[in-house]
C-alpha cells in the first residue's frame, strides 16, 4: 500500500496523463490553490516526464503559446474560472491550442454554465473535478490549508455549520484520493468534532452512491480509522516552548507557515554576503533526519554528520585536515568540493539554523521561561519536587521588560490552564504586571479559550483535559527526557490508547460501528508497502524516521480541528515507530504559538490579518 503522499502523487499524475501521452508536450497552468496542492507532492522532474514543458501562473501575464496544448489545475473559484475563460475569449487567437481542465474541487453550476457559453468549449479535451483539497506536507502529515476555519468555527455569534461542511468536504477528499472508506470516531465532549465527523461520513456515503466516483461500496476488515478531535483537547501544546529542532525554528526563526520558506544570509566563495531562501521539506535529505531531535542533539549531530561526510570523501581537505566546526569551515569545503556543493550547502544551512536558534534561546532567556512553563504544567520540578512559589516566579518573568509580549501572553495562558482556571481579577493583575493593558485584545486571548471549549474560570466545572492528574504527564520510560521538554502533548496519550484498544468508546464513539471489529482492532489486517507504478511514481530514496519500518495493520488518521502544532506532528512518527503501524496526523492548518495567540485574539474582535504568523 503506498503512503499518503505517494497516493496523491500517483492519482495526480495518472489524471494528468489521461487522454494524452508524454510525447504530447503541454503547458501546465495553475492558480495559487492548485500550485500549493501540486507542490506538496510533485516535483518538476515528474512533470517533465509527463511532457510538461513549463508551469505557468494563471494569475500572472503569460506569453501565448497557441501551438501547445494546456493543462489547467485550478480551484473552481469564480476568479480562477474567469481567468481561464479569458485565455480563450478570442476564438481566433487563443492562449493555447487545446485544453485539459482539472479542478481541485467540484465546479459550481454557475461557473459551468459560463464555460458552456464560452469559446473555450471547442478546445476542451478533458474536464474533471479531481477533489484533492488538502496538502501533504510530510510523509505522515497533511492539512487543509484552511486558515480561516478557526475563526469561522469558534468565534462567538458565528454560524459554524457552513465551515463545518467545508472542513468535512476537504477531509473527505483525503479518503477519496486513497480509495479507502474509513471507520470514524470523534471526541464527544465538543460538538464541533462530532458535527464534522458526521458530515464526513455523509460525504463519503455520497461517493459510494455516485456512479461517476470510484470508491469502495462497503467497509472492509482492513479499513483505516479516522479519529476527529478539536483544539479543546489541549490548549497547552500550542503555547509551550518546544525545543525540538523543527518546532524551535518555526517558533523563533520566522519560517513562513504558509510556504515553509526560510530566508537567511550566507556567503559566496569570495566571502560576499548573499540572501538565500529555502523550503524546509523532505526534498532536503538532512531535514527529516534531524527535525525531531532536541536542539542540543541537532547541533552536535549536524556537525558530526558533516565531518563524517568529509571524511568519506578523499578529496576533502578542510583547514589542513582539521574537522569542520562552524559555517566558515563548511564554506571552505564548498570551495574545495564543488561537485558536492548542493549537499554541503544543506549542512551549512542547518548549522546556521541551529546556531541562530540557540542564539535566540540565550538572548530571550528561554531557559528560565521554558523551565517555568514545564514546572507549571507538570506540577513538579525537573527533580520531582513539588513546585513552590509559582505565582511569584511568574510575576517576576512577566515584569521583565526583555520578555516579549507574545511570551508573556503564552505564560499567562499556560498558568491559567495549569491552575485549572483563574478568576478574572487574578488574570487582570497578571496582564497589568506584564504591561499588557494598552491593547484590550490581549485580555481577550485568555477569555477566548472558552470559545474553543476550554474552561478558564477557577472553580468552574471543566469538560476538558486540564483536570487530569498532572502526574500522568510524566515522561514515559521509553522517552528521552530533557528538563525543558517534560510535557507530552495530549494527542499522544489519546492516540496511544487508541492503538492499544483502550480508548473509551463513550468519550470517543464511532459514527458507525465498524464491520467485524475492523479498524477498531490495533492489529487488524496487514499492509504491503509496494505497488507497481510508473517511474514518475517511484518513492524518492531518503533517510528518515520511517526508513526500514515494516508496518502492519490498517492506517490510523488523526485529525485536529483548529490547528496542529509541530510537537503534535512529531507524535505521529513516534507512535508509528513504537506500534509499527502507519499513523498520519492532519488538521485544518499548522500553527505556531504566535498564530494560535493571534487566532484567539481575533475570535472576540474584528477579523485580523493573520498572514504574519
UniProtKB/TrEMBL annotation:
Record region (Disordered): 514-548
InterPro entries the record matches: Sec-1-like_dom1, Sec-1-like_dom3a, Sec1-like, Sec1-like_dom2, Sec1-like_sf
Signal peptide residue numbers: none
One Pfam family in the UniProt entry: Sec1
Biological process, per Gene Ontology: vesicle-mediated transport
Similarity comment text for this entry: Belongs to the STXBP/unc-18/SEC1 family.
Protein name, UniProt field: Uncharacterized protein
Source organism of the structure: Palpitomonas bilix
Amino acid at each position: 500500500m503506498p503512503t499518503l503522499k505517494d497516493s496523491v502523487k500517483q492519482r495526480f499524475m495518472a489524471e494528468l496523463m489521461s487522454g494524452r501521452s508524454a510525447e504530447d508536450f503541454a503547458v501546465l497552468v495553475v492558480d495559487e490553490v492548485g500550485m500549493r496542492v501540486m507542490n506538496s507532492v510533485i516535483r518538476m522532474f515528474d512533470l517533465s516526464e509527463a511532457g510538461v514543458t513549463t508551469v505557468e501562473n494563471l494569475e500572472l501575464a503569460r506569453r501565448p503559446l497557441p501551438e501547445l496544448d494546456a493543462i489547467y489545475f485550478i480551484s473552481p473559484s469564480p476568479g480562477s474560472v474567469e481567468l481561464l475563460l479569458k485565455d480563450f475569449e478570442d476564438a481566433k487567437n487563443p492562449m493555447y491550442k487545446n485544453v485539459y481542465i482539472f479542478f481541485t474541487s467540484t465546479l459550481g453550476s454557475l461557473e459551468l454554465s459560463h464555460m458552456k457559453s464560452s469559446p473555450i468549449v471547442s478546445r476542451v479535451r478533458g474536464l474533471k473535478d479531481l477533489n484533492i483539497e488538502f496538502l501533504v506536507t510530510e510523509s505522515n502529515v497533511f492539512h487543509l490549508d484552511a486558515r480561516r476555519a478557526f475563526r469561522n468555527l469558534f468565534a462567538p455569534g458565528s454560524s459554524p455549520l457552513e465551515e463545518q461542511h467545508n472542513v468535512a468536504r476537504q477531509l473527505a477528499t483525503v479518503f477519496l484520493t486513497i480509495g479507502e472508506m474509513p471507520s470514524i470516531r470523534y471526541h464527544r465532549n465538543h460538538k464541533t468534532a462530532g458535527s464534522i465527523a458526521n458530515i464526513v461520513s455523509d460525504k463519503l456515503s455520497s461517493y459510494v452512491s455516485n456512479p461517476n466516483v470510484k470508491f469502495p461500496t462497503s467497509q472492509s476488515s482492513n479499513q483505516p480509522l479516522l479519529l476527529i478531535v478539536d483544539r479543546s483537547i489541549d490548549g497547552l501544546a500550542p503555547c509551550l516552548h518546544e525545543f525540538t529542532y523543527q518546532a524551535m525554528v518555526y517558533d523563533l526563526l520566522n519560517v513562513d507557515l504558509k510556504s515553509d520558506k526560510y530566508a537567511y544570509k550566507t556567503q559566496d566563495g569570495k566571502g560576499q554576503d548573499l540572501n538565500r531562501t529555502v523550503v524546509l521539506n523532505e526534498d532536503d535529505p538532512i531535514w527529516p533526519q534531524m527535525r525531531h531531535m532536541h536542539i542540543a542533539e541537532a547541533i552536535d549531530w549536524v556537525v558530526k554528520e558533516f565531518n563524517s561526510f568529509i571524511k568519506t570523501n578523499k578529496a576533502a581537505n578542510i583547514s589542513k585536515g582539521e574537522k569542520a566546526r562552524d559555517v566558515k569551515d563548511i564554506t571552505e569545503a564548498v570551495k574545495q568540493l564543488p561537485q558536492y556543493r548542493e549537499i554541503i550547502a544543506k549542512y551549512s544551512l542547518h548549522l546556521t539554523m541551529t546556531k541562530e536558534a540557540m542564539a535566540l534561546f540565550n538572548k530571550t532567556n528561554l531557559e528560565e521561561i521554558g523551565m517555568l512553563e514545564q514546572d507549571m504544567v507538570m506540577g513538579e520540578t525537573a527533580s520531582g519536587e513539588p513546585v513552590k512559589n509559582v505565582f511569584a516566579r511568574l510575576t517576576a518573568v512577566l515584569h521583565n521588560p526583555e520578555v516579549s509580549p507574545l511570551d508573556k501572553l503564552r505564560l499567562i495562558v499556560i498558568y491559567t490552564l495549569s491552575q485549572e482556571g483563574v478568576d478574572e481579577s487574578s488574570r487582570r493583575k497578571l496582564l497589568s504586571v506584564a504591561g499588557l493593558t494598552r491593547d484590550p485584545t490581549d485580555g481577550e486571548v485568555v477569555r477566548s479559550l472558552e470559545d474553543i471549549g476550554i474552561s478558564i474560570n477557577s472553580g468552574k466545572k471543566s469538560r476538558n483535559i486540564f483536570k487530569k492528574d498532572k502526574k500522568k504527564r510524566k515522561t514515559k520510560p521509553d522517552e528521552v527526557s530533557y528538563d525543558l521538554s517534560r510535557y507530552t502533548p495530549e494527542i499522544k496519550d489519546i492516540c496511544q490508547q487508541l492503538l492499544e484498544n483502550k480508548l473509551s468508546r463513550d468519550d470517543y464513539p464511532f459514527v458507525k460501528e465498524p464491520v467485524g471489529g475492523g479498524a477498531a482492532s490495533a492489529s487488524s489486517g496487514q499492509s504491503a508497502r509496494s505497488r507497481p507504478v510508473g517511474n514518475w511514481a517511484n518513492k524518492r530514496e531518503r533517510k528518515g524516521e520511517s526508513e526500514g519500518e515494516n508496518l502492519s495493520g490498517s492506517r490510523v488518521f488523526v485529525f485536529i480541528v483548529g490547528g496542529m502544532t509541530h510537537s503534535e506532528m512529531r507524535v505521529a512518527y513516534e507512535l508509528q515507530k513504537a506500534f509499527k503501524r502507519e499513523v498520519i496526523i492532519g488538521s485544518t492548518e499548522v500553527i505556531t504559538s504566535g498564530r494560535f495567540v493571534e487566532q484567539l485574539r481575533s475570535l472576540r474582535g474584528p477579523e485580523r490579518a493573520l498572514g504574519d504568523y
